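Running this now, will post back.
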Amino acid sequence: MRLDPNIMNADESVDAVDGKELPFGIFFVHGRRFNAFHVRFRDIARGGLRLVTPGSSEQLAMETARHYDECYDLAYAQQLKNKDIPEGGSKAVCLIDTTEMTPIGKNFAMRKCVKAFTDSLLDLIVDTEETRSHIVNPTELSEVLYLGPDEQVVTDDIDWIIDRAGERGYATPPAFMSSKPRSGINHKEFGVTSEGVNVYLEVALKSMGIDPRAGPFSVKITGGPDGDVAGNLIKIMFRDYGDHVNIVGIADHSGCIEDPDGLDRQELMRLVTEGQSIDSFGAGVLGPRGSAYGVDDDAGIRMRNTMHNRLEADAFIPAGGRPSTINMSNWKNFLKDDGTPSSPLIVEGANLFITEGARRKFFENGIIIIKDSSANKCGVITSSYEICAAMLLDEDEFVQNKEKIVAEVLVKLRELARLEAELLFREMKHQPGPSHPETSQRISAAMNSAKDAIISALDTMPGAERDELLPFFRDHLPAHMTEIAGDRILDRVPPAYIKSAVSSCLASRLVYREGTRFITDIPAPALATTALNYVREEKRVAALSAALADSDVAEEERDAILELLRAGGVRTAIGLSK
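Update: finished.
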């Protein structure tokens, strides 16, 4: 079923659900032993497909009660983190009744659920003679949706979904599902999400007076060395910080291991390389003050579940775990007996690990929290690049150039993460009051509102001015991809996607360079024109700076003028050109 989003809205007079932003669209699928929601916030949207498989009737009842809310919250988090890319945020959550099933039966049910859900989604979004008379679509828009693998989705699912999209007539089947084994950019293989988490960790630590490349610091992590975010983060931190990082505790599904003196680096890297969970950590390399706990008894489970509260560290990184693990009923457990936090910094590598209410309480108690929609956004950016590659390159073409393209993607990910991280702390300094998560949402809201305004304005903008903005889409892509297929964009990429891509590039450029107030102070109808003027004046200021650098002006004066031009030359030029 395609649902009117207002069905979930108690008050249809406002564009919100219980004070939250109203989604653009909702799909609901009911099948044998499963129910599924797909929530999206724009007509062009991407987000993961998650399978939830409760082990008991009680857990099934609990997951059923929060099914839509979990899907909405994940999709909204995706919308916030998708600010840098053309696609809006979406999420699909399939809740499967796997109670009283054997492992073989559970696996069979999950694979059948993926197929049934995919077919149902394609029924609703692919226009065919067979389905046309049965479809209701009040928007009359051509819906462009992209999926990605989330919890419990396997490689065979990805391959099947892409093949099925082709059979069913989806316009760009390879783009319908990301993380393809051969022609995709596998998140776990290349550590794309963790690259962004690590950049935020470094910028945040520096804001606290700790330079992780120059001196020691400590970290505790939820999520195992065999996991995507945690495993890759361990590897990346050792790569960038070497002996300066001390990982004092790790908890995953198999148990936890902790040592205030730091866990053995070689042993952790062995687990990461071999894809082993934390219960495989060798007892012989555990330090004299170290402890290990399994989950085969209540005491071990209790120690595993409280590790993130008990251990003291400079930073806590939730890189795995269920949503709402820290909430309003237990947030105080993160504080020590004297009321100070067990970690003054939290970088949310996992989605929704901490509830909004708990985040507010943490901020009131002096804890810096880097919100998930910022910290782990690099995964969705990578998937967006993969979508572009699927539209522009043939499979063999991508595979032949994959190494170079992926290397360029990793550089772009670190750059986009650093731009937002530095803006976040700059905004906190100049606009104090809101918490770090609230400031993060303000950045996302500014970019998304600017993107929406520019998209609307592009429809009425003269063709010559629109063409002037097309290079921004080429610049958005990895350079090697542009070199190979830049001349194919107009032929292979849907016009709506190009328009959204140009708008997101312009919006992120303005916000990262000028801050959120620059956007909020401009009336929405004038945003597109301002963006175009900004680009023009930026080029002019760059030319002036180059001319000044080659002039005979005294070095001290020249450097001072160049600094002024870099700091406010474009904004001043825009004001003069009005």
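Residues 533 and 577 are 8 Å apart (CA to CA). More later if anyone needs it.
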